[in-house]
Amino acid sequence: MGPDKYGLVAFALAFIGYFQILTDYGFNLSATRELSIYRDDKSRVSKIYSSVMASKFILMILSLVIMTLIVFSFDKFRSEWLLYFFTFGLVIGSVLLPIWFFQGMEKMRYISILNILISLIYTVAIFIFVRNPTDYIYVPLINSIGAIIIGIYSLRIVRKEFGVEFIEPSFNDIKHQMKEGWHLFISTMAISLYTTSNRFILGLFVNNTIVGYYAVAETITKALQGLSSPINQAVYPYFSKLQLNNRLKAIGQLKKILLVVGVLSLLVSILLVFCAPLLIELLAGSEFAASIPLLQILVFVVFAVGINTVLGMQGLVAFGYQEKFSKIVIFAGILHMFLLLGLVFVLGSLGAAIAVVITELIICFIEFIVLRRLRIL
Questions:
Q1: What 8-state DSSP symbol labels residue 21?
Q2: Where are the chain's structural domains?
Q3: Helices (H), 136-246
Q4: pLDDT by residue (tens digit) across 195-230?
């Protein structure tokens, strides 16, 4: 698509990412934790599943209304309104795909299979339909159709494989799920200030081409981070249940995981600094050479996020300290916005990359201190 159109699509994804966060509403952690505790009680599982799905659907409708108002109220969005509506299909797909359910039931193979299917559909369709920069509009459409198809198929798996049926939830059931997910939703929104918001804020100040250079580097970094996601998704419900039954054992295993993840992620980050030119050439092409220094900075996010995931998700959240986790990421999100705006103004896209790394390292330090004071580390 070239840097310009790639940057435009990346900006749209960042914008729609806020609505994915709104519909997720922290359920990927709060509902996962609740299911991991009650997964042997089928009636309780059906109740949790139904109330979460109903809550997500309500939030999806709210998201669509808000997005429509924004798109048709500002020229920057109105000129590409179809792009944003096609991209919104990803929100529908994420609502339909109950990753939180499979995590809570500790049946991670379903997530792996579904993610592979989504990737295959997307990749094959991209090669078929996207031939030149003018075909950029097909990219979010293909992505959304794939996500929706897989989402519908996943609901069939929940019904057929787990025997879970959707039952009409009461108002109190929905209220309970919204209350349980509130602190985690605020945390996720705060986290988005130093993840999703980088492309979005950058896109408000610079042209699409520069956003495209940054997006390539960030996409490669996120793909590398994603290699550890299946492990983190599998470990989280395990720790949530283990700390209730054997807190000392959970603490001991947390320390071991922190050491392994810390060493491996640091080595990977250092190695990627030297591999950055080759990665950009192979995955994006020579016209994205400006992405190389950005990637060489952003690769250290792999190390920082690896540590943050263990300290935050497996440590604070799994051990029941959601409010402390929320306060840390809210502080980090606010701090990041000041860093981002200041560094982007001075250094452009390089400033955005530096701001992300600094924020993630600060979070590592704070979470470590808090866990030490709680005598978990």
A1: H
A2: 1-185, 193-377
A3: 138-162, 171-192, 196-205, 208-226, 229-245
A4: 778 888 888 888 889 999 999 999 999 888 877 666
